[in-house]
């Protein structure tokens, strides 16, 4: 008895993602202008498309707000989502039911931006927990003093 080969169907791309691709195609020149030399606009677009496929709430956003969020990330020289975790695309529902997307840099992204600044000698980030001794003094003799609690807060 002969068997017929199994046909594998690839899932259709949801309509909102198709619309998002069209929005990116229309805005590619603006996206390219916003990207510093180390970022490729095609990579940023692919990261955002992948994020939209993984995050259904992003598919509810107005496409122009996602394009705007991507441009905001590009202007900072950060990847808006992906393995570097330099920032996040956050959907917000507005009054009237419209959902918009905003880019929010993560602490890693902010550190990346600061490290690129001219004259920066050193920058690092640490978690301050409840119970830690922590003191900040500003002025002519600035001081940052942090002693983690041995109790583990």
> By helix and strand content, what is the structural category?
alpha+beta
Low-confidence stretches: none
How many E-type strands? 4
* SSE topology string: HHHHEEHEE
Ends apart, CA distance between termini: 69 Å
**Helical segment tally?**
5
Main sheet? Answer: 2 strands, antiparallel
Keywords:
153 residues, two-stranded antiparallel ribbon, 41% helix
Topology, pairings included?
Blueprint: H1 15-34, H2 41-54, H3 56-59, H4 63-76, E1 87-93, E2 99-105, H5 107-116, E3 133-137, E4 143-147
Antiparallel strand pairs: 1-2, 3-4
Helix pairs in contact: 1-2, 1-4
What does this structure look like?
The protein is of the alpha+beta class and 153 residues long. Helix content is 41%, strand content 16%. The chain has helices at residues 15-34, 41-54, 56-59, 63-76, 107-116, and strands at residues 87-93, 99-105, 133-137, 143-147. It has a two-stranded antiparallel ribbon with strand order 1-2. A hairpin with a 5-residue loop joins β3 and β4 (143-147). It is elongated.
Tell me briefly what this model is.
By secondary structure, the protein is α+β, with helices and mostly antiparallel strands. The chain has helices at 15-34, 41-54, 56-59, 63-76, 107-116, and strands at residues 87-93, 99-105, 133-137, 143-147.
């Amino acid at each position: 008895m002969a068997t017929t080969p199994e046909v594998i169907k690839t899932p259709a791309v949801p309509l909102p993602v198709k619309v998002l691709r069209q929005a990116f195609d229309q805005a590619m020149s603006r996206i390219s202008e916003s990207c510093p030399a180390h970022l490729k606009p095609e990579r940023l677009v692919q990261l955002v498309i992948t994020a939209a496929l993984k995050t259904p709430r992003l598919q509810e956003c107005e496409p122009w707000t996602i394009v705007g969020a991507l441009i905001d990330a590009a202007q900072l020289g950060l990847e808006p989502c992906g393995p570097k975790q330099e920032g996040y695309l956050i959907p917000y529902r507005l009054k009237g039911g419209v959902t918009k997307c905003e880019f929010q840099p993560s602490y890693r992204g902010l550190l990346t931006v600061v490290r690129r600044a001219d004259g920066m000698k050193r920058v690092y980030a640490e978690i301050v927990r409840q119970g830690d001794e922590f003191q900040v003094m500003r002025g002519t003799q600035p001081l940052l003093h942090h002693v983690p609690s041995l109790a583990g807060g």
